[in-house]
Every structure is written in structure tokens, then in C-alpha cells.
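Quick check before the chapter quiz. The format below is the same one you will see on the exam, so make sure you can read both the input and the output lines.
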Amino acid sequence: MSEEKIKISINVELPKTFKPFSSTIQISVDNNLNVESKIDQSEISVEVPDVTVEVSDVTVEVPDVSNIPDVSDVPDVPDISDVTVNPDVQDVFGIPMLFKSKPNFPGWDSRHWANGNSREVSSINRDPEDPTGWSQKRGSGTFKLSGNGILEMGGRQPRIYINSYKQPEDSLPENFFVNTESTVYYKRHGTDGANWGGLLIGSRSSGEGHSSDIGNTTTYYARFRHDGKIDFEKELTHPSSEYRWDKIHQHGKLYDDNLPSDQWIGMKFVVYTPTSKPDTAKLIVYIDRKSNANPELINNLDNWEKLKEVVDSGDWPVSIKSGYGVDPKKVIVKGNGVTFIRNTGIAKAEYKWFSVREINAPEI
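Here is the expected output.
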């Protein structure tokens, strides 16, 4: 037997969600010394000063912690985009705005897609939970909302219109978009879909849709195509149109191969009539292929790469369906106030953070 000062340390491993408690333990040392101590954290240290002991056994009694909730029961942390928005430079999702919004002009956005309510909208009908009542399903295909902020579309010709013409006979819409910055993120699933399908935004379009008997479709498109090509497209009477990039009837190359699957790609499509050139229309398209729609990364302005801008000054002729008497060189300086997204021949594609804002048209 030897004389020495000893320190007895007992470590108790507890779950990460352990809530501090208070209890009493009993430490017995050779039946000659009893020490009581309160536990209120996961490490207990008891020092026995200036005694002669022979350590034969140490026993510790701790409360049962088997019923403490698992960390998986802790609620999710709110999406960072819900709390970091600067309305002077970012939209409602925290995505940088490239052009300033027009004051006192209501825009549209898809925040109601994340209201927790799943629903499916049938053709021509409107999303009953859109507070504006403007979002409308058109074309043929599926239109599903799971309530988590994501729209799923699929089928032969799925489309979503931001259409404030509440009835076809309405002479004026509730909100007439002219100079716009439209933003959306797109995820392709699989490798199906028509080559000319993909992520397509149409601006200055018609509330009457794009059927073969409509002679006033007035649409400028930006297209990230499934085959990896990119272009702008102009349509005056459906289904005749003409595309361009560096020149008329030419595509650009967005990807060496096809449009990637299973990753989020962002598009911004800006259309406006410069105040110094009121008889023209300027089109600009941007891409975010950096953030993959990560909420912690989407607020970075450097994500957005400008791909191209073109000006329609009457030198972009389009084939016209016979019988409508439309000038094939007509510039769509105003259009019909509707923005929409379309796709072609897909089983499933996803969209989120869709918004349309009216902007102050720049001088040039």
C-alpha cells in the first residue's frame, strides 16, 4: 500500500442532443469514503485530497438517457435564402438582380410552390394556391407541385404561363409585362426530350397560347436546348419561327455534348426596349452553371455568365403563316404581356425559384 493523492475522473458519453440534467452520484472507495457530487454536464471530475486509499472498486450511477430524443428529431434549419435577402440587389429568393425592378409594378414569383401543399394542375387551369392567380398550366403533359418549392413538368408539350388575362375575352390583363428579367433554375432528368426542348423562356407572348389557329403569338425566346445548343428564337404567328445567334438561322454552342442531367442550371432572360431606340428590342441571356442551386451560393453575382445579347431592329425576318397579314420583319416592341416556360417530349423535368420582374428599361 502506498500513500498518494489520486484523481478519479469519470467520463459519460451522451447523445449530441443531450440536455443537461442534475443528479447525484455515489462514489465508494474501499468502503471508507463516500463523496457526493452533482452532475450537470457530461464530464464529472472528483478530487479526493490528502487521504491514504487502496483503490479496489469504483462505481458510478447515472440516470437513464435512453429516452433522450435523437438528433434527427430536431427541426431543419430554415433555408438560408429566407433570411439573407437584400431587396435592393436580390430577388425574393436571394438571387442577384441584374436590372433594377420598376417601382410600384407587381412582379410574379413562385414562393407559393413551397407552401407544403402538394397538388396537380390540369390543362388550362390555374394553380389555386397562387396568390396572384396568374400561373396557368397549358399544353399537354403534367404539372405537379409537391409543396417543397419545386414544379415538376413532363409530357409532350408541358408549359407554365404567367398569364394575368383572367378570361380569354379580357381586353386588358391585370399585369402587362413588357421589359422583363425572368429567372428560373432547371433540372433535367435522364436523357429524353426533343433536341429543341430543354429550358425555354418566352417573353412578350400572348395569353391565348400557342395553338395552330393563333395569329398573334409575338414571342421572343431564349433556349438552352437538350442537344447542348443555344439560341434566341422569334415567333410572330404559330408555329412559324426563326432562330439566331451570331447570325440569323444559326445556333450557338452551350455544351460540347447534351444539356447535363441531374444538376440545376440557372437562366436569366432579359428583354427590353431601350428608351433611346423605341422601335427596337434587346435580348440578353445569362447562365448560372456554378451554384447548382445551392442556397448558400446563389447570392453570388459572379455565378451569372453573360452569354449573348442581340438587338432586333427589323432585320430578323420570320416566316408568317398565310392569311394573317403580319409583317415578317415586325419588331415585338411591346407584345402581349405574358411570360412562359415550355419544354418538349420529356418524362420529367424540375423547375424552381421562378420569377418575372418588370424592370426599368435602360437607355441603350
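If your answer matched, good. Residues 6-73 form one domain.
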